[in-house]
Batch of 2 targets.
Target 1
Amino acid sequence: MTAGAIIDPHEVDDNAPTPSDLIAEICAAKAAENAAGLRMFHLAIAWAHAHPETPGDQSWKAPRASYVTGEPMGDGAPSTGDLDEVQWFGIPPIAWSAAAPFAAANAMSTAGGKAFLRDCLVIRHRMPRVYAKVVAGKVAVWRARRIA
């Protein structure tokens, strides 16, 4: 076909895929996308667990006690004053340097890699029912991350 040629919408191409073929391809592509997301989810958890906090290193973690008016509450819950502490509460602390190489390998910014690691750890350690549904393939990783 040349540029500027007029296409007849009523002309039938015998080699064109049928709508059912296209739907099957769409379903297969979505299944592959979900499988890749689940694989990345498992890799993120493994990466985070392989890079634990080491003594003397910086890490992302919640404090061990919460303070209200200077008195420790002792329940381990962070105060709401620092959102980063709340987000990392209840999950294993990871090395400060863990997010950058993970993000680079995943073509993300460092902040994006840190958020991905945090979300995966939150789902794994603080949301057992959501985690079970993600692993079973009933909930896509991107949906679980929105919950986390």
Target 2
Amino acid sequence: MVTQKNSLGLNVSSAGLGRTTKNSQRQETSSLVNEAEIYGRETEKKEIAELLLRDNLRNDGRFSVIPIVGLGGLGKTTLARLGYNDDRVQNHFDPKAWICVSDDFDVTKLTKTILTSIVAHQNVDNLNLNKLQEELKKQLVGKKFLLVLDDVWNRNYNDWVEFSLPFGASARGSKIIVTTRDEKVAKIMGTLPAYELKKLSDNDCLAVFAQHSLGTRDFSSHMSLEDIGKKIVIKCNGLPLAAKTLGGLLRGQHDRGVWEDVLSSKIWELPEDRCPIIPALAVSYYYLPPILKQCFAHCSLFPKDYEFEEEEIILLWSASGFLDRKEREKTGEDLGRKYFKELRSRSFLQQSSNNKSRFVMHDLVSDLAQWAAGEMYFTMEYTSEVNKQQRFSRYLRHLSYIRGDYDGVQRFGDLYDIQHLRTFLPVILSNSKPGYLAPSMLPKLLKLQSLRVFSLRGYRILELPDSVGDLRYLRYLNLSGTEIRTLPESVSKLYNLHSLLLEDCDRLEKLCADMGNLVKLHHLKNSNTKSLEEMPIGIGRLTCLQTLCSFVVGKDSGSGLRELKLLTQLRGTLCISNLENVKHIVDAEDAQLDRKENLKELWLRWTLYGSYSREAETEMGVLDMLKPHTNLEQFCIKGYGGMKFPTWLGDSSFSKLVTLKFKNCDMCTALPSVGQLPSLKHLTVRGMSKVKRLGSEFYGDDSPIPFPRLETLRFEDLQEWEDWIPHGSSQGVERAPSCIGDACY
């Protein structure tokens, strides 16, 4: 067994696939589908759509349940999506809902999810099951609904009967699609015979393989590879996922020898009882470079169906030391993006169809990651049994768990004895409320002094013990969503800290005074920290910073804009607030925003205090000196008290600027000349009470066609507005497809 695992490059594990307990709270799959990437399912799509459109499937007029049954990786969810998104089906049903069920068939939670899917903005958090079902029944009375229950495992007939009670009020022809690997589930839930999804034909499987390996549906441009490609596809056994993954493995590899190596690999011959992984996936894993094997195994920290952002996993890779190796002068983050892209190209990671900025692993790929990770990784299920103890392997190094409503000491069993633990990571699923952590847990956790990753995200924690400063190896600290008011001074002793996450800490008032000591810090994610009073003096010494979401200008002894001078690596989004505290224009000049070429989004905010006395000349000078780099893509000015805007604003050199917003700039009587911005698509003007009209200067004199790319123009709360667009100057605005406001030309 060990020899066979070594051939795969896997860790030795006595736990195997059972090492990760199935979580009971998974995020939803999505109903969206890219039909251009699907082959060989035209007949199946037509048949499912016809079943959905028939209203006479049952003589008693009740709703019908159509089970789709098949092996993992066969495309059951994809087929359900094809039927759900058929144009005729979309017009035939109302309401419609798509629910990912997975392991936890919790009737109350499922009913809540359906209600929130079909009734926007309805608060159902505090309703018991009886009230939930009454409300759902009310919403379905006389309506022809379509519901998809994706990935169902529960065989309990009584659960199904209780869950389905509200559906009886619906109109004739209502349908429920159930996808499952389990034929017994299909028999329990189905009112119709199960639709058994067959394997793809070799020809269709070959088209999938060719698309992902060569970028085309056939081998016309690489005829020498066709014969060996057909042999590889036979080993995919008709599974689209296998063909896609093997195609990704060979993408860009046109050397016949490489293809022959894959075909002749001994991994194909491993018996199923020794390696319960689809052979094609095991082969794909085997041929990963060692560093990608490490990165992929680390993805096992995320539970099945969990949707994550690229940066989320890259920061964890970095904290575990996977990105320390320098390559062609790339930063660690650049390496992380490269590795992420390679895993995507090999189909180990796939883009969420629900949210294009998030990613997910197929269930079977997740199984492979768990197998690869061995006993060094463990993902713990959520349980409402607070006193249920969990035992951990002595080889454990990385722990993640589904965060509960209340997590007590007992839940983590003997974890506190594992002194070599490196990762403690709660995973929060969508729509979760803040959770509670037993007060006695923190001191115990902070004794695990080998930690590299420590997260308390989303817990209602009021303060962090000073002993956090003893975690001298810590590289990643996540306190986002907690209720802390101050950051302990001991945090400034975490000299190896790479990432400090404080997002949504809306009670946070103060950072540690000596934060400038954290010279290895790359990411300070502090967005939505509305109570933060100022940045600590010396933060300008953090010259490795790439992420600084919010910079709060201090009063008197607080840090000023000049602290930004040496932070030349900043990228992404930066919001500079409390700009009314800048008393000297030279401080704004020292910020040198025009040298921060990697910034994509910039917010400049002055805070309004009712009768606040404006220093208009100073504010005009400050804004003039805060000219950003021309690579900027999004720009917002809010609360500005100057009487006019600087001349650089609207200059055509800002060729990448797509979104521009002016908010509550009360003293300005005219808008800047933004008509010459070549890429501007979205323009918002809000709360500018002294602007009375749009003059010709708004369009710019040098451009024959102002606003060449404008798509959205929004005007709101212009109290002194008198006159709209001058005659003969409106062609740019006329082309805007969307014009929103109190009035619109």
